[in-house]
Design brief:
Length: about 250
Amino acid sequence: MDDAQLLRYSRHILLDELGIEGQERLLGARVLMVGAGGLGSAAGLYLGSAGVGRLTVVDHDTVDATNLQRQVAHTLARVGTPKAESLQAAIAAINPDVQVLPVTQRADDALLARLVAQADVVLDCTDNFATRHAINRACVAAKVPLVSGAAIRLDGQLSVYDPRDAASPCYACVFPEAEAPEETRCATMGVFAPLVGIIGTMQAAEALKIASGMGSHLAGRLLMLDGRRMEWTDIRLPRHTACAVCGHRSH
């Protein structure tokens, strides 16, 4: 770290749990984030400000005026711009040292297999079950920890699925693909603006803890937020040995 970085990250370096060693690991970390909307806006800004070395952002969508109510990384001037590129610009304005690689194509199995294998940690900031399951399959195959968040209406949830831990379930253990409920989208159901910020920021926190070596304690747990009452529910999640995705994983 040079003098400018020591100054920029001084509040991290002062933390006993992080210190210079943890910050240096962040500076060398490779993070993949799928989704640059509400969750990805909050997560991406904090990952960038914290100094992750390389952040790959996958999103095939463009910024729309209806996004601006909650997707705080985007601006009116960037309506029509690919979201991944808009987020790249937002992070560059805060911390130009971070290498942000925008990928403006749909996250299919082939793309995810290639990008997940290059990452130290993955954030699922998407809004549909098909992509979530595709990300999970790629993470299980590459043994890369996955930080998964979701938010709709006034309800949010957060968990970490860590295939390096034999006791940790994968996303499909908890939400089997065959039992996927009907999709609910923000466009029809609505979403409370700060909720995506709450969940997205917590995704960044867990990803930074994993990438810095501090470690996450969310594997095997699902945090559910009732934003109306501002109450958290913490549910313990077992791994399913018969899971179609991770059931073959060795103990």
